[in-house]
Amino acid sequence: MTEIDLTPLDKAHAEMEANTADDNARLRFYERLADAELFLLLEKEPENEKISPEVFEVQDHSFVLVFDTVDRLAEFVGKPAPYVALSGRVVAGMLAPSGIGLGVNLEVAPSSILIPAEAMGWLVDTLGNAPDEVEARMSEFTAPAGLPETLVTSLDAKLSTAVGLAKWAYLVGTVQENGTRSHMIGFVSAVDGAQSALAKAVSEALTFSGIEAGALDVGFFDSNDPVAAQLARVGLRFDLPEPEKPTEYVQVAPGSDPDKPPILR
């Protein structure tokens, strides 16, 4: 397999395996797993919103199997087989309360790994953390300084998936009226209802970078708010991608709506 054939999950897994004592490498692998689109092997085709994953017993433990490409799933099965595409975070949320582990890319990729059920519970708990929205009054905004490059890289990767949720985000240093210094990421023109998802995205970037959640506040501002202009003058800007205009109706697959995950049977 050449470098060009490796998926982001392969690369994160290789980094984790090469740095077994590095907690940050392990966190980055789980971040890629949570963000990835995974193809879950099923016993039969989905019925309405219910799915029946194929369950395998390995050393007295139960696992379901996912693959990060359809071709890898087909290579493993060796024949046509039903599957459903879900994000890694949805799969983790389904498995955590069931006591079932996750087999990833088994036998067909360098990222082949068995992840125990306990790790699914940890991942769900980790994804559930969120920073507080800033409420203190700020007396000054400054250019960001002293933050690790891994955090900036993680924020950039995470916000690139927040399609259509806001126009921009600015990473800035802050000085509160009481003199306390911190950092904040301010979102400009967030769509209604997107604040929680954006705050969670920031939280995950912090967590999977090995940074304390309290190291970064989150704020939301209208584009005509004077604060937005202040952020633009001194902040590091992240452009959030705009959604593509739909060209045709596509039926929603089970589990594609994060607010309505499929039901395990």
Automatic annotation (TrEMBL):
* Span of domain SseB protein N-terminal: 10-118
Q: Which InterPro entries match?
A: SseB_N (IPR009839)
Q: Where is this region: Disordered?
A: 245-265
**Superkingdom of source:** Bacteria
Q: What is the recorded name of this protein?
A: SseB protein N-terminal domain-containing protein
- Taxonomic classification, please? Bacteria, Pseudomonadati, Pseudomonadota, Alphaproteobacteria, Rhodobacterales
